[in-house]
Design goal:
The structure holds 3 protein chains of 3 kinds. Chain B is mainly alpha-helical. Chain B contains 20 helices and 8 strands. Helices cover about 60% and strands about 5% of the residues of chain B. Classes of the chains: A alpha+beta, B mainly alpha, C mainly alpha.
Chain lengths: ~350, ~550, ~270
């Protein structure tokens, strides 16, 4: 719906017209400008600055501007000097900034001064010595005059006629078809940006019999190492910090291990999947995948530092606050013949953020 | 052109100074004299708020200059190396080449740290300045015809600036930015149907892969800045073409522009201001550090730090994500992560609301005229109220995005803050709208009183019969003109529901909405009628009482 | 990594185990008491326990029960060990002043000698981590780089990259590590005060704890830490950086813009 149906009288009168200054507009014609207290008195008369009438003041301004440009030159020299003098690793204590790099501090200030004084000089020059007489320039309507528009329309029609664009529909339509299809080549080229998702997000390195390796010591974890209230992170046996795919694998396999008194565990399955109260949960938040590990050992709550999703590790890691949509996956663990903790399989569900195919 | 050159050329070569001859040479090939004739004495009005856009322009130039320098040293690679540079606490740690080269820029390249900090500070200031510039344009109604397209260009620049900043922030591959990239990937996964595919394609496989730094690098230094540069040039051409807006005042009309000429005053002021901006950013980079990746550490997908925030301009999105309840739908073997998706949808909607407001306003007013005189925010209470409401929502979400920092610094509970944000994201803007509108109307009333009764002089006079009055000084004609020159729209009428024959008239429902909105914008109680000449004369003729 | 497994069999480890046993039986505690002052005082172990019990009865029993068995106002202290007492009392957290989400750090009200007596008494109630010796917690010669890595794995999630602290649920918080002594950091890792999880030697051996302490000192000790780029803005990350950019960066630029655009003073006032 266009605004054609808005009556003219709903629009306010042209600015100025109501006051009779410009002389057009039906209501204003009757009023003479001097009769209207609100009429536009026109640009106020120019008032001279001190510098305009006092040559000594102007000289002072001139000297101030020249001083600023000179300071800028000195600052540039200082910049080069600092660059040469200060070693790159020299630290100095400067109140209130602390122990800072002498080079960074001196280079920044000298460069800042060198630039700032050019600007300040130019602005002071403009403000005090250049003319400050305000000038009014005419505006011209942006829309083209009707005859220009008519000419353009005629040219357009001629072009259309000469090319046969409107007449030869077969040419036009096949051209549109070709133009529409050709970008597909570019889209197809993007295919090899990465592999297809397949089941990649559903599995981790964890498997039956893989020992839980303490990420601090790289030793297998033993149940007696883990006391009630302690926190430790584990990765699957066989994964090393130097592995090419370490980042990708630990992004899914990172494990958070705590021990909770079995009486305090409210969730039955959690207790079953634990080893004497030692529970292993995915460290990867189910919201958007931050490594979550702000474990409060008295409340058994674990908080995500990114978006504050809070999970209750004593109750199946269910979400008790924040934007996460589901509980942290738990890894079923046991003890192998050597007395080390081991996984009894992979996670039962995909770890990390939800995705469409997760189900 | 050729005839002119031939006739004049001969004696010019002997007499004209070198500069003029160079200019002649260029004019023969580029036509610079015609260009200069149109633009050399172009008029720009003087007002500090008109320089906000210049801050954006100059910080953008500074970002490009410093950014080019950084590319000389930065290696956009995720190959793992062991750090052995000069920063001791990080020695022996496995890092990516991107991280190691950023450390080298910071600790081994002389001046590298300064340029890196200038680049990042300028980026933060760039987006902040765009925001303030946009608010100036919004609250003064400078987006009205013929500048709607330029408003959209500016808005696109803001959005692109945010994403250029985000991709740049991710390049050093430090723990903080890596966490941000992980969030991006998690958010992409939440997109229905294609989420996992987009994620695999963007990261070249499973997160984090070995590609994202290189890919973000080409997006950050080429694709997005290229588009921004194009938009920026278009934005500036339109500013020149439309000529600048101006505030109301004596001698200033819709048909002129009053100010100083480009040559010499604005050349010196704007040119000088560039150096001022450059200098200030340089000093800021000297005295304050940001993104100290040496203490943040390299990115590891299983490590994290508390206080994990993006740069401020993404704080609004961060807030939305943080305070959203964790809703998730599981059905027919598929998962819809509303907890991530809803904020992802609200984010463009909120940004889009401010971008589209000008078009809604012009639809309601039906005004098709050009506007070059700026509104005072008080004279458009609905627009001002909407703008303040929008800013309130934005600011509340910034609090949401920093809820953990707010919690520790004001000894509050993170959960309480989150609930406050959840509620006030909806309530706050409504309260802000109502309050702002009332303040605007109050200011309009004050202006009206000032026009009709003059300025309060602060002089107390005792009349012969003992009464005390305050003397009101009448305003000058210029002031009277300034305070009464704004336009006031008349609200639309729905029209009779029956036509002259008594037959029920069909009223278009869209038109009904428009009438409603028009009343809300300009109806009774939504603007104070400005004083008329008659009112003024009646009061001034009967002067004597205050 | 193989080295670490060797460490587990390190002679010192045996000493630690021995100390545990000794504390459990309550015998010979004072002979191994780590603090220099405690040794200087040279009170016999039983005398220390006796003195500690007196202090306990006056200052602690109202919340923790007359025999340290705990009440509704305070948890049991049986088995918390001397390290926990030393940490809680020497950092001023205990005795607590008022109930709240978390007991804050404040000025210690007991002298170190009194704290040692209290610790001896609590240690006599049941076996627990004992106060570490300087040899245990001193970061001298530790690997700062490795410490940083361990810090980011185990500590940064709550205490922030450089140990500036951060928020936990419902008003709780991880305190800043600035100005916390190496001994107290060690004790905190060992005992897990309040809601902090513990990192016993089984999961984070002594050597690794020293690495972590070395990193924390490198980041927070005024003599060792530096902020090469200038003001660290609290080490809080983008929130304080954004605020600084708005207030000082854009603020200064807008001030400059006002100066550039303002009218120059006229010769005569209108």
């Amino acid at each position: 719906m266009s605004s054609q149906d808005i009556p003219e009288e709903n629009l306010p009168q042209e600015q100025g017209a109501a006051h009779g200054a410009a002389g057009h507009g039906s209501t204003a014609v009757a009023q003479r400008a001097d009769d209207n207290p609100f009429a536009d008195p026109g640009l106020p008369a120019h008032k001279p600055r001190i510098q305009d009438i006092d040559e000594r003041a102007a000289k002072r301004s001139e000297r101030a501007v020249a001083l600023m440009f000179t300071l800028s030159m000195l600052a540039t020299v200082g910049f080069i000097a600092c660059f040469v003098i200060f070693p790159v690793d020299k630290l100095v204590y400067i109140w209130p900034f602390g122990r800072v790099s002498a080079l960074n501090f001196s280079l920044g200030l000298t460069l800042g001064a060198a630039l700032f004084f050019i600007g300040a000089g130019a602005v002071h020059w403009a403000r005090t010595l250049m003319s400050d007489q305000e000038i009014a320039a005419e505006r011209h309507p942006i829309e083209a005059a009707p005859e220009v528009k008519a000419q353009v329309m005629a040219d357009w029609a001629a072009g259309n006629e000469e090319s046969g664009f409107g007449r030869r529909k077969l040419v036009r339509n096949t051209m549109f078809g070709a133009m529409a299809l050709v970008p597909l080549a570019g889209v197809v080229l993007l295919r090899d940006l990465g592999p297809l998702p397949e089941k990649k997000l559903r599995t981790t390195l964890w498997a039956k019999g893989k020992q839980l390796i303490n990420m601090n010591t790289m030793e297998p974890l033993r149940p007696e190492d883990i006391t009630v209230g302690s926190l430790v992170f584990a990765m699957p046996e066989g994964l090393g910090y130097d592995d090419h795919e370490f980042q990708k694998e630990i992004a899914k396999a990172a494990l958070m291990i705590v021990r909770i008194r079995p009486d305090d565990i409210k969730d039955k399955r959690e207790l079953e999947w634990s080893h004497e109260g030692i529970v292993a949960f995915s460290k990867i938040c189910t919201h958007v995948g931050c490594p979550i590990s702000l474990y409060e050992q008295q409340t058994h709550h674990v908080l995500c530092p990114c978006h504050q999703s809070t999970f209750d590790l004593a109750d199946g890691a269910r979400v008790i606050f924040g934007p996460a949509g589901h509980a942290l996956p738990q890894l079923r663990i046991g003890v192998n013949t050597e007395g080390n903790l081991e996984a009894l399989g992979d996670f039962a569900e995909p770890v990390g953020p939800s995705f469409w195919e997760r189900g | 052109m050729s005839t002119k050159n031939e006739t004049k050329g001969a004696d010019n070569q002997r007499q004209a100074p070198a500069g003029e001859r160079v200019a002649d040479w260029a004019d023969g090939r580029l036509g610079i004299y015609s260009l200069a004739k149109a633009n050399m004495r172009k008029i720009f009005p003087d007002h500090w708020s008109f320089m906000l856009g210049e801050i954006c322009l100059y910080s953008f130039i500074i970002i490009i200059l410093t950014g080019v320098y950084l590319t000389l040293f930065f290696h956009p690679s995720m190959n793992e190396v062991v750090y052995h540079g000069s920063y001791v606490p990080m020695q022996g740690v496995r890092v990516s080449e991107a991280y190691a080269s950023t450390m080298e820029i910071s600790f081994d390249v002389r001046g590298g740290l300064l340029i890196r900090q200038m680049h990042h500070w300028a980026a933060l200031i760039f987006v902040a300045a765009m925001m303030v510039h946009m608010m100036r344009v919004f609250f003064t109604g400078a987006y009205r015809k013929p500048r709607e397209i330029n408003w959209l260009f500016g808005f696109l620049l803001l959005v692109l600036g945010m994403f250029t900043g985000f991709t740049g922030y991710s390049l050093p591959d430090d723990l903080l930015s890596g966490t941000g990239v992980r969030f991006t990937q998690g958010a992409i996964l939440s997109v229905p149907v294609v989420g996992t595919y987009i994620s695999m394609f963007l990261f070249g496989g499973e997160f984090p892969g070995h590609d994202f730094v290189a890919r973000f690098y080409s997006i950050h230094i080429l694709l997005l800045p290229g588009i921004m540069l194009g938009l920026l040039v278009a934005h500036l051409i339109l500013v020149f073409y439309h000529k600048h807006t101006q505030y109301a005042g004596p001698g200033r009309t819709e048909k002129n522009v009053v100010g100083m000429p480009l040559l010499p005053v604005y050349m010196a002021k704007a040119g000088g201001f560039f150096f001022l901006v450059f200098g200030v950013i340089s000093v800021v980079a000297a005295v304050a550090t940001l993104n100290p990746i040496w203490s943040i550490g390299p990115y590891r997908t299983d490590q994290v730090s508390t206080g994990a925030q993006p740069d401020w301009y993404m704080g609004f999105a961060e807030g939305l994500i943080r305070v959203m309840p964790g809703w998730e739908i599981n059905a027919w073997g598929h998962t819809l992560a509303l907890g991530v998706m809803v904020p992802l949808l609200i984010f463009p909607l909120v940004l889009g609301a401010i971008a589209l407001y000008p078009f809604i306003e012009s639809w309601v007013t039906g005004d098709k005229r050009e506007h070059h005189i700026l509104d005072r925010p008080r004279n458009t209470p609905t627009r001002t109220g909407f703008g303040v409401a929008w800013l309130t929502a934005y600011f509340i979400m910034l609090i949401g995005g920093g809820n953990d920092i707010v919690a520790t610094h004001f000894s509050m509970s993170i959960n309480t803050i989150t609930w406050f944000v959840r509620i006030f994201f909806f309530v706050g803007p409504v309260l802000a709208f109502i309050a702002t509108k009332r303040i605007c109307l109050g200011l309009q009333r004050r202006d009206r009183d000032k026009v009709l009764h003059g300025r309060e002089s602060g002089i107390i006079k005792r009349l012969p019969h003992g009464e005390f009055i305050e003397v009101h000084e009448p305003l000058s004609q210029g002031q009277l003109h300034t305070l009464t020159s704004h336009e006031q729209y008349v609200p639309l009428e729905a029209g009779p529901t029956v036509d002259e024959n008594g037959v029920e008239r069909k009223v278009n429902p869209v038109h009904k909405v428009k009438v409603k909105l028009s009343k809300g914008f300009y109806g009774e109680g939504n603007q104070i009628p400005k004083p008329t000449v008659e009112e003024y004369k009646e009061i001034s003729s009967g002067h004597g009482h205050h | 990594m193989k080295k670490l497994s060797a460490r587990r069999r390190h002679p010192l480890a045996a000493v630690v185990v021995l100390l545990f046993a000794l504390a459990a039986t309550g015998g010979l505690y004072a002979a191994f008491a780590p603090a220099d002052k405690a040794q200087a005082v040279e009170t016999s172990q039983s005398l220390a326990i006796e003195e500690g019990k007196k202090l306990y009865t006056v200052g602690c029993a109202s919340c923790h029960g007359t025999g340290g068995q705990g009440t509704s106002d305070g948890p049991t202290l049986v088995g918390v060990g001397s390290a926990a007492v030393d940490f809680q009392v020497a950092t001023g957290r205990m005795p607590a002043q008022q109930p709240g989400a978390q007991v804050p750090k404040k000025k210690a009200i007991y002298s170190q000698a009194e704290i040692d007596q209290l610790a001896a008494y609590i240690a006599s109630l049941g076996a627990g981590p004992i106060t570490p010796t300087e040899k245990q917690y001193s970061p001298e010669g530790a690997d700062i780089g490795k410490g940083g890595d361990l810090f980011r794995t185990n500590c940064a999630q709550c205490h922030n990259f450089t140990g500036k602290g951060g928020a936990l649920t419902n008003g709780k918080y991880a305190p800043t590590l600035e100005g916390v002594s190496a001994k107290h950091i060690y004790e905190a890792m060992q005992t897990g005060p309040q809601n902090m999880p513990s990192f016993p030697d089984g999961v984070l051996p002594e050597k690794e704890k020293q690495d972590v302490i070395a990193y924390i000192e490198a980041m927070n000790d005024p003599d060792k830490s530096s902020s090469p780029g200038g003001l660290s803005l609290g080490g809080l990350g983008p929130v304080s950086e954004g605020l600084f950019a708005w207030v000082f960066g854009l603020g200064a630029l807008i001030a400059a813009a006002v100066w550039v655009a303002a009218h120059t003073a006229k010769a005569k006032k209108s």
